[in-house]
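Model it.
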Amino acid sequence: MSKTVNISSPSQLSEVLQASRLVVADFYADWCAPCHQVAPIFEQLSSALSRPNLVTFVKVNTDQQKDVAQAYRVTSLPTFIVFRNGKVAERVQGADPLKLQAVVQKLTNEIENLKAGDGEAGGSGSGDAEANWRGAELPRGYGDITDQIELKRCELLNVDPDTGSVRVLFDGAKPSALSGQKSSAKDWVESDTDEQLLLFTPFQSMLKLHTLQITSLPPSDSADDDDVPMRPRTIKLFTNKPHNLGFDEAEDLSATQEIQLSEKDWNAEGTANIPLRFVKFQNITSLVLFVVDGDGDGQKTRLDRLRLIGEAGEKREMGKLEKIGDEPGE
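Modeled.
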């Protein structure tokens, strides 16, 4: 049975947008030949990726739902729109296989992030306000491109196994340390044997990185100083590495950028907004983040969230997707 929802009214679409964190909409018409070509692919994606209240695929007949088509400025058929938390996030006009490939790949990675948020963070991202949490404002003209990270290939070295996995760093939910929610799953990471951490993040596409946002929320209780984790102080960034570095190698290599953080760099929500030397972060396919030391006398450092801000560029080569049409229809 198809999992795709056929929209019969503007109010129904509004309900779906409120109920599901991601909505993928296919705007089509019965007379549109490219629409018929792409329909089987859309159904395959719907069957594979739909999740109740999380990811929903819908079809909108533009002849029957003219008000909806006009509201979202649909002028070419087919048009695919991806909504995130009720707002338009992506748009593909016409039966363009390459563009659809890009959106599907990005959607797949977004779903991985949502799964991590639901499972490993103890469901702390269930509410809209929590899911929209960012920690710091975006620089004007740039977007959050954290969803371009290939989560399955990320690697974090020297992590305490009693804290969260690498996935929690990219969770869009508000950290439990700020939300006040109790959870058996820890939605942060700490270093293990000493204060250093090495994080390898490969990307789906060429990125232009403008800003790095790091959230670190050590507890402020009265435990001994040696037992309380620290915020990062010295960070080294390396670009376009095919795999993670070793700690000795990271110590010796010249970094693309080295960062020194102090107490004044952290805002009220525990986030440091770090501008990068933009000219050195063009056409980036991977990033290695090396936490060299922490700001204090403790033995461990802590990371709660990590966000990449910039622009996504050309997609790297991906597996073939079935051809869905040669020319977009009007």
